[in-house]
Structures are given as structure tokens and as C-alpha cells.
Amino acid sequence: MKKGKDKKEEVIDISTLPKINYVTNLLLLNFKNSNLNQERRTKILDSLYKTSHKLVKLICREQIIDFAKEKEIFKETDQRKEINTEELAKAAAAIIIDRSIPPMKEKKAFLDLIETKKKEKEDATIAWNNPQPVDPKAKPNPKAPKLVNPDEIIVPVLDETATELMIVFYNYPWSEAEYQAFEKEKLCLNSITLINDKVLTNNKLG
User: For the whole model, what pTM was predicted?
Assistant: First the structure.
């Protein structure tokens, strides 16, 4: 049986993409004194994932570790099974870039559309203000370009202040050491949300 060829990973030069406005938040779920079982915890997180806006990316610690392994930031061996704080922080920084690429692509497409519409409007304005003389004896040419009123061409406007991506880390960074490594990667948290046992117990998710 022949094995299928692995798909080549798309190589993207992010320097060709526009920067986006993003925020990084921390969601802490404190289960230390909770009787909630793993199934209940999973339901809570699943509900958070499903209710998230498409621009909100909820990333748990396990995802960061898996990403670190995938990108070989952390290589698990028989001698070392646990990822360290520095590797975890590097993976967090890398996963932010990874999750930023789709909205960066969308923004580039939108900026390209703006430029296209601007050019269309400029050309339409020139043609509108400088109509070509028409020979009344000549037969109409169906292939001749029709005049377009430039006022009918709408150029989209980009909101420069809009948040285009929200990263929500779940239970990371958790300790002071992890946060220090997080800061060394020039990362910062815009907000921290703590959901304790009582809130979770009374929450009717799932």
C-alpha cells in the first residue's frame, strides 16, 4: 500500500503582510479546590470555544506544548519529558504569530481592494470629466467602454483602531517564573480574568 505524500507546509513571508491590532488576555480557571471532574471542565472549555467570535482565539497550555513540539521548540526525550518555562514562552510567542497570519491575510486582501477601488474611481473620474466626442453618423460600438459615474464607486474605509485579533491564553502563564519568561519574549497581557470554583459551580454551561 502506497503512502500518500505529506502536504508541504505553506511558507509565508510575514514581512509582506500588514501588521494587525491584537490584544493578549489571560483566562485563569481555578480548579484547585473544586470537585468538578474532567468531563465538566471539558464542557466548560468547549462552551467557551463555541461562543468565541472568529477573531477570538482561545489557546490552552496543552496547545502551546503541542505547538512547541510541532515546531521543534521543545524536543521530548527519554531524559526530559517536561517543557521548561523559556521554551513555553517561545512557543507562546510563535503561536501568536501563527494565529495572526489569517487576519493579516484578510487585512492585506482588504487593503488591496481599497487600492483597486481607488484606481477605479480615479479612472472613472478622468473619463467622466473628459468624455470622448461622438460622431453622430457612426454606428454605436457595443464594445466601447461605458462611462461610469465615479460617485457610484464606493471605496471601503479601514478602521485603523479596530481590534483584529484577540488571543486568550487559558491557564498560561500561571506562575511568576512563567510570566517572567513570557515578558522576556516581549509579550504582555492586556487583561487577566479569574474564574474561581464558586463561579464555575454556579455556571450553567453544558
Answer: 0.77
